[in-house]
Amino acid sequence: MASNSSMSLQVEDSKNTGGVKARRVIAYIVLVAISILCLFWFYVLFINSTRSHAEMTAGFQAFPQFKDLRFIKQFITNFSNLMAGTLPIWNGLLNSFIIAGSCALLSTYFSTMTAYAIHAYEFKAKKAVFTFILMVMMIPTQVTALGFVNMIGKMGLMDTFIPLIVPSIAAPATFFYMKQYMDSTLPLAIVEAARIDGSGEVRTFNTIVLPMMKPAIAVQAIFTFVQNWNNYFTPALVIKTNNKKTLPILIAQLRSADWLKFDMGQVYVMIAFSIFPVIVVYLFLSKFIVQGIALGSVKG
Amino acid sequence: MSKTKKGNVVSYNKWGYIFLLPFIIVYVVFQLVPLFNTIWNSLFEYYEAGLNVVGPNFIWFENYKTLFATPDIWKYTANTMIMWIMGFIPQILVSLLLGSWFSDTRLRLKGQAFFKTVIYLPNLIMASAMSMLFFSLFSQSGPINSILMQMKILEEPFDFLYNTLSVRTLVAFMNFLMWFGNTTILLMAGMMGIDASLFEAAEVDGATPGQVFTRITLPLLRPILIYVMITSLIGGLQMFDVPQILTNGKGEPANTSTTLIMLLNRHLFSKNYGMGGALSVALFVLTGILSMIVYKFSNSEE
């Protein structure tokens, strides 16, 4: 490794130091431009959520109004106006948390269990089940939505959280990630050793396998949480009562309201309110998340 | 512990089935039964017209005939595909470029962790919130019009949300923004997997970075590129949140931004079970074929 890099350094110095330097400069310029393209919209969101409707109508301003901390005061005003309005945003936040959190827990626990069944045991239907799960992995939930709505209607589960939470037990993509992680980190000798020590199968799974899978579980818990936090299609079909609505449904409701009458300050605060939790989590765990994507999605 | 060894093996392996049970039960109840129910419904004339319910009358494949005979379905298919392609082309080009820079050991770019964090961020943002944000930003009295007027590029506000090209561009742009970071990281992982000695050999032979990219990186990356393209196409067929919120479900102007899933959503809300079923089954078959291709590819890689 060391000799390789010193060799390439020499080649670089002798031949194309200038070329590499120029390419590096171009790369930085493009990367900065693309980062601005990604962040600009959220910057405008921040600015506009700290301004009043009247100020916004007068025209866009590039910087927050720092004088007398006006931007903080106006943000608080916008936020309290939003809370005083008809949208049940705190319920929405709580509902989204309950649903996304439960999905993350159930999905990771049972996907690990399913992966363990395929990984650690030999049984007749094993190969068929594994192939089946891989094949259905890509099928979108939308194409079964009609039957799904019909069925939960018949089961009396309409307008409840159950049809939004329980299906996450069967998550083929999470299963696949867990299975791959297990292949590389869970030697069967450990399971054997636990058996010899007299540990039951369920206990082995809960006390030995689960802790070893912690890194994979954490990555998938975050992804499942975010995915369900952001989900709009299915909750919109299932939930009817105002107080049970999740944040994406409230956003859609805001969009279909006669928005010209709306105080735009509140609209921006509402958008910020919906994406803020995910952004905070991301800022703390970004390195971990970015590594997780590459680990799972490309075949190892 | 008094069992024989053989008995033990058998009793252990039954646990394979037991641990599979939760997945299988939930999958059957919430995915498989609904799928068959959807297919079954697609064979009936069954819809609500005002307060009257028509059907259910068994009509074989009439719904499919109606579905494919109406020009709407082709228009919405075209809309979906156009907006997907408009987003996918810049997505793959930018991702290839950034991926090759991130994985290039000679460039040794600093701050990679920061850039990766920033470009992946939009992927985690709620699509409906992002769409609502763009709706607010690009509305007639919104900040984009305001900025463009302050810069004297526009004399009076432009109605971005009632122009076919600008609505489609906005939808495609949001899809691009949300997915290029993800694609960059996938392609980068693929590029890092390429044997470094190939690059060194090319370098010794005096290949330019452009030649290295087109002659070595691209051909070796082909399986991942195909994977990315087909999974993105499957995602594109599901396009819903962004155009739905941006146009308030109307697909404005004149349904030129209505996607297939938006049509499905309309059928679901108007309780047109027959036609909704037929559309679902058509989409199911299409994604099924596409997933088979992905499955074939990811297996032949080994």
Q: Output the CATH topology of the largest domain in chain A.
A: MetI-like fold
Please indicate the count of domains of chain A.
2
Number of strands of chain B: 2
Specify the CATH architecture of the largest domain in chain B.
Orthogonal Bundle
Strand content of chain B: under 5%
Return the CATH architecture of the largest domain in chain A.
Orthogonal Bundle
Q: What's the CATH H-level homologous superfamily of the largest domain in chain B?
A: MetI-like
- Order of SSEs of chain A, N→C? HHHHHHHHHHHHHH
For the biggest sheet of chain B, the summary is: 2 strands, antiparallel
Strand % of chain A is under 5%
Low-pLDDT segments, ≥5 res of chain A: 1-14
What features would you describe in this structure?
Chain A has helices spanning 2-49, 53-57, 70-84, 89-120, 126-136, 145-154, 162-165, 172-185, 188-196, 201-212, 214-230, 233-238, 247-256, 264-297. In chain A, helix 1 runs antiparallel to helix 14 (264-297) and helix 13 packs across helix 14. Chain A has two domains: 2-82, no CATH class; 85-297, MetI-like (MetI-like fold). Chain A has 300 residues and is mainly alpha-helical. The model of chain B is unreliable at 1-7 (pLDDT under 50). Chain B has a two-stranded antiparallel ribbon with strand order 1-2. The radius of gyration of chain B is 25 Å and the shape is globular. Chain B has twelve helices and two strands; from the N terminus they run H-E-E-H-H-H-H-H-H-H-H-H-H-H. The longest helix of chain B has 37 residues, at 5-41. Helix content of chain B is 74%, strand content 4%. In chain B, strand 1 and strand 2 form a beta hairpin. Chain B has 302 residues and is mainly alpha-helical. Chain B has two domains: 5-58, no CATH class; 71-300, MetI-like (MetI-like fold, Orthogonal Bundle), CATH 1.10.3720. In chain B, helix 1 packs across helix 12 (273-300) and helix 3 runs antiparallel to helix 9. Chain B has helices at 5-41, 62-69, 71-103, 112-124, 127-138, 143-150, 164-192, 196-204, 209-237, 241-246, 260-269, 273-300; strands at 44-49, 52-58.
